[in-house]
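>> received
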Amino acid sequence: MKGFAEVAIQIPRSGIREILELATSMQDVIHLEIGQPDFDTPPHIVEATCKYAKEGHTKYVPNAGVDALRDAAARYFTRSTGVATEVENILVTPGAAVSLTTAFVAILDIGDEVLIPDPGWPNYSMAVSLAHGKPVSYNLRPENQFLPDVEEMQTLVTPKTKILLICSPSNPTGQVYSKDAMFQLMAFAKEHDLYLLSDEIYAEIVFDEEHISALACDDDQRSLIINGMSKSFSMTGYRVAFTRAHPDYVMLGTKLQEAILACGTGFSQLAAAVGLDSPMDCVYSMRDTYKSRRNVAVEVLKEYNLHRYTPGGAFYLLVEIGSTGMDSHAFAMELLQNEKVAVAPGSTFGTMGNEYIRISFATPETQLREGLHRLCRFIRSKN
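>> returned
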């Protein structure tokens, strides 16, 4: 029998999932590794889900998504960015990962290159490779507060470069890009005639400043903006996201979704529309809790002289472990076994993460505080 595709075999497994699976097989583990909100889905969205399921919205839906959600997403982008958005600009997908994969399949020819952040979500490079593209990492250096250096990025562009991918607020750093940074990145994309693919799934989880969407900096419609319901609305299992882009891309993406997955789930999409069109109090309440937990994390890290920066959004923070001399994967495994604290190894996010581990604030404050004290004492014991 002939073998499997080499590109599929070569894709590495996520280090986050490996830690998660081991941690869930153990007792009394404090989970600081998972990027999933610990809040219940807001009641009005759950009620809408049940209502639409009972009404029979369990059949096939249009490839681009149900009209009610596309309309609601268009209103959301218009409201949140100040840029007029119509239903023709919206492509609904079953989760942000599918939004990314659809974009890469739509834009990349074999061997085309995508500039991706390092450290960054490991699914970026996976999805580029699956589309037979080439991921090229640009460094988010700690000495630059994990923010992009456009001058350094200039050296990475080749005739094969086709997409610049950015993420703000960032997974795994939690950093939020300023208006100046966003305009610089958009100017860079225009200079090299690149699509700018902006992962803004954490857009509503910003603590100390306004979130600036790449859409607000785009004057020639080269941006593709990915957002969705998973993180801000605590709806990870609903698998509902949407891409805001030029209508020509939406038409092509709609055709590709027919081939990739046929369509999403009707009652989930209709419930998501209710969430987008309702008051955002529940979202802001979750955001404020994450901010409080962020402050707790900073407080504990300062107590052990391990504070290096303060993240401005999402629910993540990188903790430096370079002084231990340990590889981040080995560190995470030993921490889990000895202290029963699960963290994400920084190496899973790229080479720039080798001397860090990622913690998540998506856990109750008492657990977060105890887990951080165990983590800090473990680091101290290795020095």
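>> The chain has two domains: 6-41+281-382, 58-277.
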